[in-house]
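Changelog note: in this version the structure field was regenerated for every chain. One regenerated record is shown below for reference.
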Amino acid sequence: MIEPLFTYLFYSFIGLALIQLLFYWLIFGQLAFRKRKSCPNLEPVSVVICARNEYENLKENLPLFLAQDYPDYEIVVVNDASDDETYYFLKNLATQHKHLKVVNMGETPNFFKGKKFPLSIGIKSAKHDLLLLTDADCVPAEPTWIMNMASGYCKKVEVVLGYGGYEVKPGLLNKLIRFDTLHIAMQYLGLAIAGMPYMGVGRNLSYRKSLFYKNKGFISHYSIPSGDDDLFINQVSSRKNTAVVATPEGITLSEPKSSFGEWFKQKRRHLTTGSLYKPQHKFILGTYSLSQLLYFVTGIILLSWLFQWEIVAGIMVFRLITQIIIVKKCMKRLGEKNLLLFSPVFEIIMMIINPMIALSNLIVKQKTWR
């Protein structure tokens, strides 16, 4: 009775390992190895930033956006009813920089309590068709950030996906946060390069204003607080109109959370929209996550009972080598450091944390973006 069961588990393990290897080489490998297609582009750009009580972040970060090496761009900052020193800081800074446009919003009947309304106002206020979106707690990694993101706009491209990383800080939590961000990027950037774009991140995202209006903005999911980045991209992106910029010079960096509780809360907000993705995207992402979990479960069971353990161990070592090769290449493309040795352990940790976050989202609903 036991022998047929372990035989079934053994062949299931081989199938699951094959699925995992296909994801690594055919999807994540797109980001790791595919040469970037760049198109010189100096089209005028509007950088849109929404801020609610972000005085300290704006004071530190906004000068770096205003000092970008690009011939024609504006910075549009939407002050979303802040009650700190944001208004006075922006008012003073706008007198010093002609390419800074400030849009002040008072308390409005924004019943949906999300970022989408102020972001829509910012997009409406932008004077250029090419939009580049980021957050007040982000900084451009290099003065050529706009230049790099704009270079993704080759013929027929209407959406450019970028990488929004986190600053390197001491401690394991920082490494876990950066690994999780990298791993998610390997999925959405890899799938986009492979012709199946499904999301972007608001920390570093670009699309055309005309595309925003053509698809009636966020109207189809306006009642949902989150999703101004991933749900919109899931709605409007396609194989033909989407490009990826994956260079260390084209990324933004954010201040990472310093406590597990704050990061857990942030992750909860980020994972509230996945159930609304298109069916094909949910199937692909679900296949990866489920095969990943079952791969480890069946592998551990087989090794524990020493059933075909030489083959099982060999397959697991081969997958581990594959993971190290692909992750290392992706780290280089996205400017990440000091994560490689931790990646196998962090992968298992995130397999435990993500279901916990999904369960908590079923129990408690979040209503605000800040």
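Spot check on this record: Strands lie at 45-51, 73-80, 100-105, 130-135, 138-140, 159-161, 164-166, 205-208, 242-244, 252-254. The chain has a mean pLDDT of 93.
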